[in-house]
Amino acid sequence: MTPLLLDRLLQIADLFQKDMARAFEGTGLTPARVHLLWMLQHAGPSTQQALAQLLEVSPRNITGLVDALEGSGHVRRTPHPTDRRAVLVELTADAARTMTRMQQEHDELNATLVAAVAPADRDTVERGVTAIATHLQALVADAAATASEKTAP
């Protein structure tokens, strides 16, 4: 029996999770913490409120993540330059180097995965994967909206 496309996508997701767990074993970095570091790498210093919106989590979750990452020396809080009430969260120098290395590894893995596809098929695969991701994102958003409507008074 030929696996469904969904089965292959789930297999890929599982393999990425296992690889990430292996890569960060012993570092104290969880997927959620790495995701926050990744966002800081790309967005630059940000308020916790902005990070909560980027990661689509509650401010309480961000506080816990930032506290843990500050404790492990990956981020620091600094005063906001224009808003006395706010603080910025930024990568430490060591974390910035780690994230730069991670970006390089990310780019290398992307190139390796793309190379597994015949050159003539690469554009088609890219369009197909993008279409699937976009459609799944819409389905998840619709399901969340429906769930919110059911719990609203």
What is the helix content?
Answer: 55-70%
CATH superfamily of the largest domain: Winged helix-like DNA-binding domain superfamily/Winged helix DNA-binding domain
Overall tally of structural domains: 2
CATH architecture of the largest domain: Orthogonal Bundle
The CATH first-level class of the largest domain comes to: Mainly Alpha
Largest sheet: 3 strands, antiparallel
Count, helices: 6
* Structural class determined from secondary elements: mainly alpha
Instruction: State the end-to-end distance.
Output: 47 Å
Instruction: Give the SSE string.
Output: HHEHHEEHH
- C-alpha Rg, in Å? 19 Å
In short:
The protein has 153 residues and is mainly alpha-helical. It has helices spanning 5-23, 31-43, 48-55, 59-71, 93-115, 122-151; strands at residues 46-47, 75-79, 87-91. The protein has two domains: 5-116, Arc Repressor Mutant, subunit A (Orthogonal Bundle); 118-153.
